[in-house]
Amino acid sequence: MRGFRGRLATAAGALLALSACTGGGGTTATSGNAGTTAAAPATSTATAAATTGPCTLRARQDWALAQLRDWYLFPETLPTNVDPAAFTTVQAYIDALTATARAQGRDRNFTFITSIAGENAFFNSGSSAGFGVRLAFDAQQRLLIAEAFEGAPALAAGIDRGAEIVAIGTTTANLVTVASLLGSGGTAAVNDALGPSTAGTTRVLRIADAAGTRNISVTKADFALTPVSSRYGARIITDNGQRVGYINLRTFISTADPALRTAFADFRAQGITRVIFDLRYNGGGLVSTAELIGDLLGGARNTSQVFSFTTFRPERSSNNSSRNFSPQPQSISPMQIAFIGTSSTASASELVINAMIPYLRANAALIGSNTDGKPVGQIALDMAACDDRLRVVAFATLNAERRGDYFNGLAGVVEASCRAPDDLTRPLGDPAEGSVRAALDFLAGRACPPITATAGTGAAPQSTNVQLQAPSELLIADEPDAMQRQVPGAF
What we know:
Elements: E1 28-30, E2 37-39, H1 45-52, H2 57-71, H3 90-97, H4 99-103, E3 112-115, H5 116-125, E4 127-130, E5 133-138, E6 143-148, H6 153-156, E7 164-169, E8 176-177, H7 178-194, E9 202-209, E10 212-219, E11 221-224, E12 234-239, E13 242-248, H8 256-269, E14 274-278, H9 287-296, E15 306-312, E16 321-324, E17 336-341, H10 348-360, E18 364-368, E19 376-383, E20 388-398, E21 416-419, H11 434-444, E22 471-474, H12 482-486
Parallel strand pairs: 13-14, 14-17, 17-18, 18-21
Antiparallel strand pairs: 1-2, 3-20, 4-11, 5-6, 5-22, 6-7, 7-8, 7-9, 9-10, 12-13, 15-16, 15-20, 19-20
Helix pairs in contact: 1-2, 2-3, 8-9, 9-10
């Protein structure tokens, strides 16, 4: 089946920083970790291309090359003999320039071109268009709903976690089974059948779930993603008399901050000292939100203790920074934290987990399966006249012990782990769901099998004795928009 595994690769383009927009097509680089910005020199080739040249393919390619030469974390890997004329898109040219680092596992499509307007809309409000679901294939190649988002069309139509999409069409008369689509064109055919991420796109989906099999017509619409679910995003679970705080964070965007503060204020008021932080599908996002999470988990930390270090290449070392903890009124002092992760857990999610290791040691555990392995972050470089934003890998993130070499995922870094399934037969946050159950076991001191430290680039979850519908990979869009890069599997 053509490209089945390749197209189910983890969404590795998750960002760690959000650029400030600049006028006049200028170029702005934002480290994000310390909230400082560094503008490119006014005489640079990059600025000249952005302000004086038309938005031709060659002008945009030349601009992208200039940015990579100026900021790329792995400059020694950039080739000198790649002809831009051989490529029909800016992204294809960027992929050729970053091929060596990608082959080394250090830039697995983390460097990309995107829309300034689209990215700003998502990071400012979670705005996007789609059905409002997260899709995954299980080991039997069934297309399943891993999650459905509040305020979006699919959930309103009765489609929720655990449902199977059996067939897709534009009408009931031309439904094509997912099995046939995969057989004829792999996951690219499934992507095509689902249609573009534009409001007004209608598809008929044959759904099979506990209520039976039926055809449902669903129209994609604009909606604002709720980063902390109103249904299961924050709750307190009682397990054999022990009260545990549970948080499920979908993505690191600014609208998550108030919900996180509210949840932790409740945890603090109720004396919570053990936490399950569910990041199983979280592809990353804003460093500022990661820092807030560190502060909310850092009630026992002081302002002289380091949360994370940010380091650029030697020529850009003036941008290096460190960020210390800053406890907030809502902060708690957890004795133990169980982080739920999968191969889709990346970037800012991994930053938070890695940052807590020096302080909690074996009391901070990874639950589920190995993470993606993205200890690097992107800055944003804008060609405003063309609505081009280049997200270029420019810095590495380290914890207080200056450890950050986890390109193969965090399973080989954390001091404690529990292998567990992503159990689609139960809602997220349910104490009986496979990964939540394993997290509760860890927090209670019950035995659990460790996670195998395999590479986090699309490895399937480890087998367990739990009977479940287990997704092996999230379905990734062929040409992801801003939301789909940050929310792996979103459609």
